[in-house]
Design goal:
The structure holds two protein chains of two kinds.
Chain A lengths: L1 H20 L10 E2 L4 H6 L4 E2 L3 E6 L5 H13 L7 E6 L2 H4 L2 E2 L1 H6 L7 E6 L2 H12 L6 E7 L7 H14 L3 E6 L10 E7 L14 E9 L7 E7 L4 E4 L11 H12 L1
Parallel strand pairs in A: 3-8, 3-9, 4-6, 4-7, 7-8
Antiparallel strand pairs in A: 1-2, 9-10, 10-11, 11-12
Chain B lengths: L9 E7 L2 E7 L1 H5 L8 H7 L4 E4 L2 H14 L7 E4 L3 E4 L10 H15 L12 H10 L7 H7 L9 H9 L5 H5 L3 H8 L1 H11 L15 E11 L2 H22 L1 E12 L4 E12 L2 H14 L10 E13 L10 H19 L4 E6 L9 E5 L23 E13 L6 E6 L2 E14 L14 E8 L4 E7 L9 E7 L2
Parallel strand pairs in B: 1-3
Antiparallel strand pairs in B: 1-2, 4-5, 6-9, 7-8, 7-9, 10-11, 12-13, 12-17, 13-14, 14-15, 15-16, 16-17
Helix pairs in contact in B: 9-10, 12-13
Chain lengths: 262, 486
């Protein structure tokens, strides 16, 4: 009787401990990945919480670049030299294109912080992601996948999230050409490219994003945002309304004159 | 060695049979009538002004060994031919230097820079090449003729046999070849026949290549073969511990560890792991080995057991004893390095990469993705102009993908395009940004110019398109999509 009750008591204790630490939500946030847009950050409690999983869906494959850039810019906004780990499968280069470091430099990010991890198949991608989230010292971990990802079920997602919570890393799941499935993510976003604020001579302007908050554990979802990226301020800001033609940015007209005077 | 006056004939002297004799001499001394083996006193009497250096065979050998080490750039199979020769097996290596002539030129150039005088020859076998290099006096059209013209001294027989050959009137190899081999063996000894057959390539002339011993190596031999993997892993842990201890004594860290498992049936299997930074962390090395063994497609099979295991550390780097910083910055950086090592061990060193900038205008060549385990130095990236939108895409297609484009005028900007079975109407564009081909790198100075356009379609997606070729370069230039902007 005693022999069997002792393991039972041990198990009970363990369950009690698990219940006390709870799920991934139990630990208070250690910080946020902020967008730099005050209202946007305030609406989701300060930004994307560090130590959690956040999902970015690009329902249409053509919006993949926008979703990827949004996630990368959020991570590269953080000060310091902590690397951004980017995991993808080797066939992603053919599907969505190779990550182009000069393009990241053009957005004001430092491509030297990027650590690219390319695996042969989704199974290895998941295995490497499990190691990557458990490595403290990264700015964020981006896991890019294409289409349905049957291996990423609730168990796998929870394992990743627990790893991120314990190591204090932020996991950004980039789901291209995929529809949302149940998960333990803190926030889930749908990202679509938005028409940019036109520049002189109707040239395409700074990157603009249409964001929809599909799910948020900390509050109501369903809010829409339209942001564009200001690389000089290293922050997101309100984008022009769709179709509206705004006056040209003052800086753009001033700059050539200044160059002439110099 | 005392500095010698520069313009004197140089001789090396050595004590032989109780007298100082010349061991080797330079070309000028030879021209003055000195010979190797001559007593030094005689030489001095003949040429009073001599630069004399004591002969040191060990130093000569060490120098030859260093040259052989350097020749590893040409081929992994380099053999020493003491005291003054190197034999390189260049089978399958010459094309890397644009042929045999290019390879010889390269060796010539490098060794001349070191002050060496070079005689070289190519041959079908190691012995033939060696004989040609040492005994050939006049050039021949092909190798077979050259070998036949060699003097019999090229066989390097005992003095008696060589004299016997000369007395018999056999002066060249060609003379010997004309005789039946059995007669030669009967009259001049089996050695003469063997040497001749080796020279002609009828008998194998094996090469004894110089092998670089790893700087640190530990091994275990077992009287009773080890048949269980867990046990073998434990022994590997011990070997790693010993190697790390030796590294610590030398103040070094390992970058490359190689474990070799010798099976009792004669098979051997090597498993290697690499780290991005020099390490003396036994736990880390063992984790990497475990990672590597898990990732093997063909798992390590002890079979009837391993009777020997060896751990070599071929690559060392200086690693001072360190103290971790208090604020933890070092610890975090170390965590990332360790992750790189682990992932590179699991998915291959090319799987984990960092970006480096390349100074070129050709977009697809402007970046390099280098293995992160080699810790490439950071490169400066171009700083974008303030106020400008991004001019380069976030994702790049390499190679670019063909699209169909409708433009209002042939030379004008695109109006709509079709890509991956969907049509996109262009609302905004900027361009062209004209990027010429790097004609100065091409032999024909040709190459098509590309006209790049940044375009935005009606749904707000931004693309990077280009027309490959101007209309005066090509009658019907094609359009490509090269990237996607954020």
């Amino acid at each position: 009787m005693r022999e069997s009750s002792q393991p039972l008591a041990g198990l009970r204790q363990r369950i009690a401990r698990l219940a006390a630490t709870g799920g991934p939500e139990s630990r208070p946030a250690e910080g946020w990945l902020a967008s730099g847009h005050g209202a946007f950050d305030a609406a989701i409690g300060g930004g994307l919480m560090v130590g959690r999983t956040h999902e970015f869906f690009a329902a249409d494959a053509l919006d993949g670049a926008s979703a990827a850039a949004f996630a990368a810019l959020l991570a590269l906004r953080t000060p310091g030299q902590a690397p951004l780990l980017w995991l993808r499968t080797v066939d992603a280069g053919r599907r969505t294109g190779h990550i182009y470091a000069p393009g990241i430099a053009e957005l004001g990010g430092d491509p030297g912080r990027l650590l690219l991890i390319e695996t042969a198949d989704p199974r290895m991608l998941l295995a490497c992601a499990n190691d990557a989230v458990r490595c403290a010292g990264s700015a964020a971990v981006i896991v890019e996948s294409w289409g349905k990802f049957p291996l990423l079920d609730l168990t796998a997602g929870r394992r990743l999230t627990l790893g991120a919570r314990d190591a204090g890393t932020t996991l950004l799941m980039l789901r291209l050409n995929a529809a949302p499935t149940p998960s333990v993510a803190e926030t889930r976003w749908s990202i679509v490219a938005a028409p940019s604020r036109a520049l002189e001579a109707d040239a395409p302007g700074a990157p603009a994003f249409d964001l929809e908050l599909l799910r948020w554990r900390g509050g109501p979802a369903g809010t829409h945002w339209r942001l564009d990226w200001d690389k000089d301020e290293q922050a997101f800001r309100d984008a022009a309304l769709s179709g509206a033609v705004l006056p040209l940015a003052a800086r753009r007209t001033v700059h050539p004159l200044g160059a002439e005077a110099a | 060695m005392a500095p010698k006056p520069p313009d004197l004939p140089l001789v090396f002297a050595e004590k032989q049979r109780g007298a100082l004799r010349l061991a080797s001499i330079d070309a000028r001394a030879q021209a003055l009538g000195l010979r190797v083996g001559m007593p030094l006193a005689d030489a001095r009497a003949q040429v009073p002004e001599l630069a004399i250096v004591p002969h040191d065979p060990a130093l000569d050998h060490a120098w030859l060994d260093r040259l052989a080490q350097g020749c590893a750039r040409y081929t992994p199979l380099v053999a020493l031919d003491s005291p003054d020769g190197l034999i390189l097996d260049i089978t399958g290596c010459a094309h890397l230097f644009e042929g045999e002539a290019g390879l010889i030129d390269d060796i010539d150039r490098r060794l001349t820079r070191l002050g060496m005088t070079l005689r070289h020859a190519l041959g079908p076998t190691a012995d033939a090449a060696r004989a040609l290099a040492r005994y050939q006096t006049r050039p021949a059209l092909d190798e077979a003729t050259a070998i036949r013209r060699l003097p019999v001294a090229a066989l390097e027989l005992e003095a008696e046999a060589a004299t016997a050959l000369i007395r018999a009137g056999l002066k060249t190899i060609g003379d010997l070849v004309a005789r039946p081999m059995a007669n030669i063996a009967a009259r001049f000894g089996a050695d003469a026949a063997t040497a001749l057959r080796r020279l002609l390539g009828d008998a194998p002339s094996p090469l004894d290549p110089r092998v670089t011993p790893p700087p640190v190596a530990t091994e275990r031999r077992f009287a009773e073969p080890v048949a269980s993997m867990p046990h073998a892993t434990r022994i590997l842990t011990e070997l790693v511990g010993e190697a790390i201890g030796e590294l610590a004594e030398r103040g070094k860290g390992g970058r490359h560890f190689r474990a070799t498992f010798f099976r009792s049936d004669g098979l051997a299997r090597s498993i290697a792991v690499e780290t991005g930074h020099p390490t003396r962390d036994a736990g880390l090395v063992m984790r990497l080995f475990a990672e590597r063994m898990d990732a093997l497609r063909d798992p390590l099979d002890p079979g009837f057991g391993f009777d020997m295991m060896r751990l070599a550390v071929p690559r060392l780097e200086a690693l001072a004893a360190t103290q971790l910083k208090l604020e933890g910055g070092e610890v975090r950086a170390a965590a990332v390095t360790e992750l790189v090592d682990r992932l590179a061990t699991r998915i291959g060193r090319g799987g984990v990469r960092k970006f480096a900038a390349v100074d070129t205008h050709i977009p697809e060549q402007a970046q390099l993705a280098l293995p992160a385990i080699d810790a490439p130095p950071p490169t400066p990236w171009s700083v974008p102009e303030p106020g400008e939108p991004p001019l380069r895409p976030f994702y790049l297609f390499d190679p670019p993908q063909v699209i169909e484009v409708i433009a209002e005028v042939p030379d004008g900007p695109p109006h709509r395009f079709r890509w991956r079975r969907a049509t996109h109407a262009i609302r905004r564009y900027e361009g062209p940004e004209r990027i010429a081909s790097e004609w100065w790198r091409r032999k024909d100075n040709a190459g098509l110019t590309r006209d790049y356009y940044r375009v935005e379609d009606e749904r707000g997606r931004r693309y990077w398109l280009f027309r490959h070729g101007l209309y005066d370069e090509k009658p019907d230039p094609r359009w490509y999509i090269h990237g996607l902007f954020a």
